[in-house]
Amino acid sequence: MSSTVTDTHTATEQHEHHVLKPEHSNLGLLRPDHSKSVIVDWLTTVDHKKIGIMYGALALFFFLVGGIEALIIRAQLFVPENTLISAQTYNQMFTMHGTTMIFLAVMPLSSAFFNFLVPLQIGARDVAFPRLNTFSLWTFVAGAFILNVSWLFQAAHALGWFTPSGATAGMTDMAPAGGWFGYAPLNSASFTGIGTDFWVLGLQILGVASLAASMNFIVTIINMRAPGMKMMRMPVFTWMTLVTSLLIVFAFPAITIALAELMFDRNFGTNFFRVSEGGQPILWQHLFWVFGHPEVYILILPAMGIVSEILPTFSKKPLFGYAIVVFSGAVIGFLGFAVWSHHMFTTGLGKVATAAFSLLTMAIAVPTGVKIFNWIGTLWGGHVRFTAPMIFSLGFVWMFMMGGFSGIMHSSAPADAQQQDSYFVIAHFHYVLIGGAVLALIAGIYFWLPKIFGKMWKGTLSNWVALVIVVGLNVTFFPMHFLGLIGMPRRTHTYLSGFGWDGYNMVCTIGAFTLAFGILLFLIDIYRCLKHGEPAGNDPWDARTLEWSTSSPVKVYNFARTPVIAARDALWEHKYGAENRKISYEKTDGHGIHMPSQSWFPLIASIGFVFIGLGMTLRQAGVHIAQFTNGAGEQVTIGMGYLAILGLIVLSTGIALWALEGPGGYHLHPEEDDQS
Amino acid sequence: MSDTATASNQDSHHGLVENNKKLLMWLFLGSDCMFFGTLIATHLIYRKLYPEAYDPTTVFDLELTSFSTFILLMSSFLMALAVSAMHKGQMKSFRRNVIGVIFFGLIFLGCQVYEFTEFVHLDLTIQTATFGSTFFVMTGTHGVHVAIGVFWLICMYFYSHTGKMDPHESAVDVEVAGLYWHFVDIVWIIIFTVVYLIEFIGKT
Questions:
Q1: What pTM did the predictor assign?
Q2: What are phi and psi of A91, to 5 degrees?
Q3: Cβ under 8 Å to A: B residues 81-120
Q4: Angle between helices A194-223 and B20-49 in degrees, nearest 10
Q5: I need a surface site. Which of A11, A118, A133, B179 has the fewest CB within 10 A?
Q6: Greatest Cα-to-Cα distance within chain A, rounded to the nearest angstrom
């Protein structure tokens, strides 16, 4: 039952370990199931909950890395004509700050929630393709590695241990330095070194991870719902996962091809973006933003989903206008594909195109505004409880709205022509991304961590976390509106005194360190919760959706018996609703619960990507594996291209063996009285 | 490829709209549409921008490409027969047809390799203006798709000899491979039309 904690957990676990032995796969190899080694267990896991936890931990790690890069940027801009870091290092800092925060922090943190929550919210035992999910995780790790390993080469270059030759001879940037949108022709081999190659390969690998994960989630949400969990009964977070995944499936190909074309330009001398041979840099901008604008919604829609779960829970009311919130989320996703050129108003698109994209951009504010009104409608007349998740969610609504307002200002092309490439834009998207996405994700962590680890938060430190983060956010980014309007351009590594920028910059930097202090407090709060937290129980917040009906932490099989859903807000109706709206449970068939087997092959296939990435990048730096004189006295060079080919072989072999080993599986037998 | 947690979880899940693997393949194909759409768009944009820069009718061999297009179309027909045979549980007929698909796929690839070599001899390389870049990367990407399909079907052919292939369970795997194969075929028909045929309007 949902409200009582049944303590058969230990008994079940003993049962598992005594009875279950790993089996042989179709290839005759032993499957890594029931491993005594914790490391083997986590490396080969197919459990969506463990995968979600790993995504979350990695995302928080990269959130700190990106944060440190931001602090270095702000420290450099603290005073005019500062010489803390060089112009090139500054370029690398803002490039990697943006790339890391978007692809390695916010997206995987959303992905952590998708993984952990979606199967629980729809009453499934796992995602549709558990091994593909593992593959997505490790491919993400491979991409993150390729992006960040560039720092090691930069350090080696600084120490004089590594000098590129070949195609990028003479270049000094080993870490990406072209900005997170890497405009052509700056990204060509004539202007940037292997940093750009690391960036290209890293993003392509991350794209594979995102695509595989998204397709998996769409299939899961459409096919794996528990009986009675109709589409319009799904929690809004699951809905937003579906919309986000569809955005990824259709938006990522554009950047993948753009990156592939760039890779061919840099590696094989093609002319896609080579101006001297007729290549058009504007093509890069179009392809990038056809992906780049949906990407913005890929970052914010999961956050909207999280907030749409938290506000009703702590207002003791159903979400106001559920259907219209879902519908406006879908409309945002749809319109998100039709507004990309508002990033390019100053490129001379022509009057008609500019007017059309201007109008569409204004139109997309409508469904966003509808959501805001629905959230306020949810709060209206509710019994509001100011818990930590609620405080952050309220902060989200407020701060995201401010980012939205400056966004509408950008939709007007003449105004945008003034704001383009100024600090005003920086202020806008940090309000949307920190005030929006990050606040909501922190709210999500406060909300679901008790479910994930079964520990409850301690004390009221969370209030201070919220206060310091929101104050830090506003002190950092509000002055940037003014900085932009009085003309400070973005991406300048230093500035002269006497433009009236000095004071604002100083305030921004102080704000940035305040924000960082807030994040530090947040990490301390997480540590206290995990270390000293009291057992949370199944449903510590008196929540509404299905995931709170299971035990905390959730057992490996999620639901001992499949729930049958009779209404939206299933658990809430179960606790307080009419008799015919309660959750019922299917009878067990006596064969036990079928669990998917763990596997090494997704991990092995992902390792292929590391070789491909390193091979393709170091090839550009003229590095070779071996050089010798053969019998005929000829000089033979084995270049890094061979490492890339080896990577392809590892990847395809891994996938082929993964297909041939068969899905396997074993059965668990939870105790009879252990209902959910 | 054949990740069948599907089957394992089906006992407890209902309201299946479409088989998991088939839905996954449809999503992949939707995504792949965007891949090829981007490549073909790039090609057409540069063709329109620089109509005089390169005249491909001087190198295109329409007879050869028509032949390889026909071969690829017929391979799709055999693929459909293979899928149907698997559904009926006729393993022998399945193998015969899959061998046919593999053979035709290899002929197509052979034609493409021959064509590429010829073009390079005629001084059309991947570095020739924007035309060479867009043409080779686009048709090359398509060729890689065909090659992956051939590799997949070869694996499937040998797997059918291990005795582990059960017509009832594997029919959907074959169908998924068929979806992929038909899609790659359709993409080629688009490329053949907008990249090859269009160039000859008013030329012959």
A1: 0.93
A2: -60, -45
A3: none
A4: 140
A5: A11
A6: 89
Give percent helix, percent strand, percent coil of chain B, each to the nearest 5.
80, 0, 20
Query: Does residue B11 register a pLDDT over 70?
Result: no
**Chain A partners within 8 Å of B17 (Cβ):** 222-223
DSSP A174-231: -S--STTTT-TTTTSTTT--HHHHHHHHHHHHHHHHHHHHHHHHHHHHHH-PPTT--G
Length of chain A: 676
Closest-CA residue to A306 (of A241, A402, A229): A241
Q: Are A429 and A435 in contact (CB under 8 A)?
A: no
Taking the Cβ of residue B48 and every Cβ of chain A, the question of whether any pair is shorter than 8 Å is answered with no
A656 contacts B24? CB cut-off 8 A: no
**Where exactly are the structural domains of chain B?**
18-200
CA distance B200 to chain A (A): 23
Taking the C-alpha atoms of residue A285 and residue A258, their distance in angstroms, rounded to an integer, is 9
What pLDDT shows up at residue B17?
A: 56
Q: Verify whether the Cβ–Cβ distance A264 to B133 is below 8 Å.
A: yes
Higher per-residue confidence, B1 vs B122: B122
Q: Which two tokens stand for residue A241?
A: 């996962």
CATH class as words, domain B18-200: mainly alpha
- Reported as a single tens digit per residue, the pLDDT across B135-146 is 999 999 999 999
ipTM of the complex: 0.91
Q: Closest CB to A271: pick one of B3, B17, B129.
A: B129
Shortest CA distance from B53: residue in chain A? A278
Indicate the helix (H) or strand (E) that contains A301: helix A281-315
**What is the spatial distance between Cα A420 and Cα A441, in angstroms, rounded to a whole number?**
28
pLDDT of A4 reads 37
Tokens of B88: 């009926």
Instruction: Tell me which chain B residue has its CA closest to the CA of residue A207.
Output: B31
Q: Minimal Cα distance from A602: which residue of B?
A: B3
In chain B, which residues have their Cβ closer than 8 Å to the Cβ of A244?
none
Q: What is the pLDDT of residue A19?
A: 57
Widest Cα–Cα separation across chain B? 63
* Average of per-residue pLDDT across A382-392: 95
CA torsion A272-A274-A277-A283 (nearest 10°) is 50
